[in-house]
Write a structure and sequence with these properties.
Blueprint lengths: L1 H21 L3 H4 E17 L6 E7 L5 E7 L3 H6 L12 E9 L5 E8 L5 E3 L24
Parallel strand pairs: 3-5
Antiparallel strand pairs: 1-2, 1-4, 2-3, 4-5, 5-6
Length: 146
């Protein structure tokens, strides 16, 4: 009986810790020296925890189109900033200011998003240690368009 309770307690502790394993600091995945501005059309929205993701088709100066991912804060934090899942629809044009992934993939940390209606919202994750970690658009990069 004691072993059963110990195993149950350990299992519950591991389950409770799972969300913290999924979360990471800004510097674990993104490079604060590589700002980027993406202008493109939304292809997919994942309104999930611990991070919401947007995917957009971005066309470069040569006319090549690539699909980029943008990681932002979780839905609760974004909602408190005035951003609702219904604010974005497939095909909408948005501007994302963020920082590139360290691995060179087409993924950015979304520090600021300009929505189709012109609102600019801080997209960063509070407490992640990245630029503008005060919950405002301060520190969001203004980078060359990609």
């Amino acid at each position: 009986m004691k072993l059963h309770r110990s195993a149950l307690a350990l299992s519950l502790a591991l389950i409770a810790a799972l969300p913290s394993f999924a979360h990471h600091s800004f510097s674990a995945e993104f490079d604060g020296t590589k700002p980027v501005r993406l202008v493109g059309r939304i292809t997919r929205v994942e309104w999930t925890n611990p991070h919401a993701y947007l995917y957009l088709d971005v066309t470069d100066a040569k006319g090549n189109t690539a699909n980029w991912g943008a990681e932002s804060a979780g839905p609760g934090a974004l909602s408190r900033r005035g951003w609702k899942k219904t604010d974005l629809k497939i095909g909408d044009s948005v501007v994302i200011d963020g920082y590139r992934a360290k691995d060179g993939s087409k993924l950015v940390d979304c520090r600021r998003i300009t929505l189709p209606d012109g609102r600019s919202i801080y997209g960063g994750t509070p407490g992640d240690g990245g630029p503008g970690d005060n919950g405002t658009n301060e520190g969001a990069p203004v980078a060359p368009k990609h």
